[in-house]
Design goal:
By secondary structure, this protein is α/β, with parallel strands linked by helices. The chain is built from 15 helices and twelve strands. The chain folds into three domains: 80 residues, no CATH class; 138 residues, no CATH class; 142 residues, no CATH class. The strands form four sheets. Strands 2-1-5-6 form a four-stranded antiparallel sheet, covered by helices on one side.
């Protein structure tokens, strides 16, 4: 590492609704000057996978990637981007998440116990392992020699003190192999050479790298399938890691003959099936995440529509009147006010009229006996009868009463509750009658003038007039 870098890790996802990338920082490793130290911190770091909130729409959803940035410069530099829930980054926990690949807390605890034991376990069995591995190479020397890389040849030559082949500045693998076939010509030298050339592969790759992160496909390309298969099968591992060995083995097995071949072929088939199921799970996880985001957006939209609907329900209805009607209403209101004043003046000139309610009671009862009418059409309505005062009657609509002697607070209140005004012309004061006329225009409610006092007859008249 030439200069210090400041490393941070973010959880990121793409908001399907707002079409933007959403990111939140979960780890800050500070400034680093040594890659080995950084790698050690990365291996030991664990951070919680949390839902990421979109700053625009406010929807929270599980992240899709972990992204490592170098923020030491003016602009953040993306270094590593890893899909969460993949083989490179399995999720640990027992929670309900949409990720395809993950381990329970119990499996992770067992895995960590195995990793803690691996170096001691290897050292206690290393000599036996190397003896068997070198004997395996001796039996297949010509074919395995072809799998060695130029770096492995160079490392072995340096460790054994052998002279480097003479040639161009860059020695090809073919030149190394040709020189080794000529120079490494005894079994004893072959065993020593094989151990020296494979030391990095065994101790720095298979033993050092956590088994859950073994890049099997990459190792096969670099080191050859036969060597990688042998090491996957035989490198010393604690018992807790045997399950992970089987998973890794499924990626390198080739078809073989005999009973052992059938077993290996079955392991390979199971590994391919597992990979297929993992890929399917990852795709379903992706679809589930997208569906959750779409559902959250729809839920938010429904909530907003409900709020708008509630606002519209509570908002008074706006009546748009024709300008000509407005002028006419204003003129009529002015006329009503003038008539009120005139009525009040004339009423002051007349002697006080004495109304004897008892004289009309017999008429009320006689009229009630004459007709009985159903008030079905007025169901749910409130009728205000002004000019007489009676108790509550048994009718399908609500009936309110006022004596009509004057325009008091009670009358004003009753007009706001009523849907229909009925004026008993024989018993209401002129002042109250003219006031009700004006109020009917103001509130845009129907008003009827009747002489009857029989309730059923009054309601029947109201029904027939409203039906017109």
């Amino acid at each position: 590492m030439n200069k210090a870098v400041h490393i941070v890790t973010h959880l990121e996802r793409r908001c399907k609704r707002c079409k933007i990338n959403v990111s939140v920082r979960v780890q800050d490793y500070g400034e680093q000057t040594n890659w080995d130290s950084l790698d050690d911190q990365l291996d030991k770091s664990l951070y919680q996978i949390i839902k990421v909130r979109c700053p625009n729409c406010g929807i929270e959803e599980w992240p899709e990637f972990t992204v490592m940035y170098n923020i030491s410069g003016k602009k953040p530099e993306q270094m590593i981007k890893t899909k969460i829930g993949s083989e490179d980054m399995p999720v640990i926990g027992n929670g309900d998440t949409p990720y395809a690949i993950g381990y329970t807390l119990e499996e992770e605890a067992e895995y960590n116990r195995g990793l803690a034991k691996i170096k001691d376990h290897y050292q206690g069995r290393s000599e036996e392992f190397w003896t068997n591995y070198c004997q395996f190479a001796l039996e297949k020397w010509s074919s395995l020699l072809k799998d060695l890389t130029d770096k492995e040849f160079e490392s072995a030559y340096v460790q054994l003190g052998l002279p480097v082949p003479i040639g161009s500045n860059v020695i090809s693998v073919a030149a190394w192999r040709k020189d080794a076939e000529k120079r490494i010509n005894t079994d004893e030298l072959k065993l020593v050479f094989w151990r020296a050339s494979n030391r990095y592969l065994v101790e720095e790759e298979f033993v050092w790298a956590p088994i859950g992160q073994w890049p099997m496909d990459e190792w096969i390309k670099i080191y050859g399938r036969e060597r990688v298969t042998y090491l996957t099968l035989n490198v010393p591992l604690p018992e807790e890691l045997e399950l992970w060995r089987t998973k890794a083995l499924a990626k390198v097995i080739k078809k073989r003959s005999g009973e052992t071949g059938v077993l290996f072929e079955r392991i390979g088939q199971l590994g391919k099936e597992l990979d297929k199921q993992r890929n399917r799970s990852m795709e379903l996880g992706r679809q589930l995440m997208e569906s959750r985001q779409e559902n959250a957006a729809l839920t938010d939209q429904v909530w907003k529509l409900k709020q708008e609907n509630a606002t519209l329900k509570n908002k008074p209805a706006e009546v748009i009147r024709d300008p000509g009607d407005l002028r006419k209403i204003k003129s009529l209101k002015g006329l009503v006010d003038e008539l009120r004043a005139e009525v009040d003046r004339l009423a002051g000139l007349l002697p006080e009229e004495v109304i004897t309610p008892e004289a009309d009671i017999s008429y009320i009862e006689e009229t009630r006996a004459e007709t009985q009418t159903s008030i079905i059409d007025l169901t749910g309505k409130t009728v205000l009868i002004v000019g007489w005062l009676r108790e509550t009657v048994d009718a399908e609509c609500r009936v309110l009463w006022h004596d009509g002697d004057s325009v008091d607070v009670k009358l004003q209140t009753l007009t706001t509750e009523a849907d229909i005004f009925v004026v008993l012309t024989r018993f209401i004061s002129h002042q109250a009658m003219w006031w009700l006329k004006a109020e009917a225009v103001e509130q845009d409610k129907p008003i009827l003038f009747v002489r009857e006092t029989n309730v059923d007859r009054i309601l029947d008249i109201v029904k027939s007039n409203l039906a017109r």
